Amino acid sequence: MGIFKRLRDMTMASINDLLDKAEDPVKMLNQFLRDMEEDILEAESAVAKQIAIEKKFKQQYEEAEEMVTKRSEQAMKALEQGNEDLARRALQDKKEHQERFDELKRQYDLAKTNADQLRNQLSEMKEEFGKMKNKKDLLIARAEAAKAQKQINQAMTGFGKDNAAKGFERMNDKVLQMEAEAQASGEIRAKSRSLDDEFEQLDKSGGVEDELAAMKAKLAEKKQS
C-alpha cells in the first residue's frame, strides 16, 4: 500500500469519525475538503520531487550511454590508425562509462517506477476529492432539509395545543363572562327602579290621556251646536 493510499484512507476515516460528532455538518464538510486539498498539495509536491529525481537519472544515464558510444567509436578509429594503446585506453574508459550507465539506468528504472506509482496514487486522491466535492453538495442539501424539518417539527409540537389554542379558549371564556356580566347588570338596573320612577312614568302617560279626553269633549260639543 502506497503512502498516498494510506493517507487517503486515514483522511476518510477521520471524516467519518468527525462527521458523527459534528455540530454543524456544513462547516465540517467544508473543513474536510480544505484538509483534502492540503493533502493533495503535499502529495503533488512529493510527486514533483520524485519526477525530478527520475529526470535527473535519465539525463545522467543518457550522458553515460553517449560516452559509451563515443569511446567505442574512438577506440575503433584509433585501432584503424594503428594506435593500439589509444584504442586500449578508449575501451577502458568505455568500460567505466558502461558500468556507470548500467547503475544509472537501474536507478532511473526504479525512480520511474516510484514516480509512476505516485502519479497513479495522486490521481486517485484527486478523483476521490472530486467525488467528495460532489457528495458535499448532496450532504449539505440533506443537512439543510433535516434542519428545516426539525425546526418545523419543534414549532408544530406546541402549535394549536398549549399556546394559541388555549389562548383562544381563555379569550372565549372571558367574552362569555363579559356578556353575562352585561346581562346581569341590565336585570339589576330594571329591578332597582324606584316607585318615584314608576309614578313619574304614570304621570307622563296620564297627562296625555287627559289632554286627549278634553279634545274629544270639545269636539263633541262642537258637533251638537
TrEMBL record:
Keywords: Coiled coil. It comes from the Bacteria. The keyword Coiled coil applies. Residues 69-135 form a coiled coil. It holds the Pfam family PspA_IM30. The keyword Cytoplasm does not apply. Belongs to the PspA/Vipp/IM30 family. This is PspA/IM30 family protein. The lineage of its organism: Bacteria, Bacillati, Bacillota, Bacilli, Bacillales.
